[in-house]
Design brief:
Strand content: 25-35%
Strand order of the largest sheet: 2-1-3-7-6
Number of domains: 1
Shape: globular
Number of helices: 3
Order of helices and strands: HEHEEEEHEE
Structural class: alpha+beta
Largest sheet: 5 strands, antiparallel
Helix content: 10-25%
Distance between the termini: 12 Å
């Protein structure tokens, strides 16, 4: 994946799945990702809404976007977008919960048109580079 491929991926994902937010109940999209650097330390994953268009830079995601900090595209090792994600929140007015579907089939079609290698299953769309 080149930086241009990542930019195209994020622009398409944002356009098709919607604006991301750090809080699930406010987010139109959701994903999990890890970096090559994180794989060498604890193999953990972050999760958040997808970066919005203004947070998609030439070589990385921007600081203070839905991902909270910049991530170099060359360091992204794995990103997973679920077909559906669940959210819940507790407010002074009571507990709320729900789920949102993500049209990963359309995203997969658009990624294929751009020759961006990915995998789609009944549960997720993913780009895995390790």
């Amino acid at each position: 994946m080149t930086d241009e491929n990542w930019k195209a991926f994020f622009f398409l994902a944002n356009q098709i799945l919607g604006q991301g937010d750090r809080q699930r109940e406010k987010s139109e999209s959701w994903c999990s990702w890890t970096t090559f650097g994180r794989l060498t330390s604890d193999c953990g994953y972050w999760q958040s809404g997808l970066p919005s268009q203004e947070h998609i830079l030439d070589y990385s995601t921007a600081d203070n976007g839905p991902w909270g900090q910049p991530f170099l595209y060359t360091d992204i090792a794995h990103i997973i977008i679920p077909r559906e994600f669940y959210w819940e929140t507790s407010l002074p007015t009571g507990f709320r919960n729900g789920s949102r579907s993500q049209n990963i089939d359309v995203l997969s079609q658009k990624l294929s048109e751009k020759n961006i290698t990915h995998r789609i299953t009944e549960l997720v769309l993913e780009i895995k580079l390790y």
